Amino acid sequence: MSQVQEQQVIVDNKWVLDHLKDQKVRIVEVDYDPNTAYNVWHIPGAVLVRWREDLRHPVLRDFIEPSQFEKLMESKGISNNTTIALYGDYNNWFAVYAFWLFKSYGHDDVRILNGGRTKWAKENLPTEQGAKEPQYPKGSYKVKKVDWGSHRAFFWEVLQKITKGEVGRTTILVDVRSPKEYTGEIRAPPEYADEQTQVGGHIPGAVSFPWAQAVNPDTGEFKSIEELRRLVESAGITPEKEIITYCRIGERASHTWFVLKYLLGYPAVRVYDGSWAEWGNIVGAPVKKGTEP
Length: 293
What we know:
Oxidized Rhodanese, domain 1, globular
């Protein structure tokens, strides 16, 4: 993938600074816990989208309906032709998860701030304090298409691929959780203790590729295209097969999905967003423990 293509989905701090007053651009912080992020400090002019309260369905374990998404976008001053730059807490996990959702709902121009809050803070760039959001004129938004087919894999699809022997042959399952989650030593990271699963381990046949390999730990920025390609290919993740990523609730899986699809140009990548929180709670679902796929 060319550097020009990369720049269409990634922006840097300078780009954000240059567009803070641009009415065609909306800077959006996406947080799992705004009390430790946006409400403490945020980029000047940025609006807040709360992952659990704003993007999750109020009743089902699913995402908000297109009509609810439209209202949310309009309330943040976003229209269909708005350029959206996303960043957020937890290493940009939920910002990239939102990118995945925005693309599933057909938004044309959405980008990720490379390095997110980490890089912005390291460079001591301007911030605003407190929970009060800026108010913008109401947007005009209409979801023109919903494309789950090329973005989302469901439990029954993954199970079918296992029973048909497709995993490893035509499909690569990529477990992007930490090594201890993959082996089954722990069932969830300690910061997510409220979302435990019944069993630990991984989906049989899944290869381990911890999401953090893709970023610079000091700045939160993505590694170079060359380094990313070397890392994923050395893990046996190749573009001629369909790739399905998963983690625990989908946020880290979306991060690796973004790397594969948008930075490396892999043609067929989906997120199993049910991930281990679903798989590890289903009676009879096949599970493997240990370091082997």
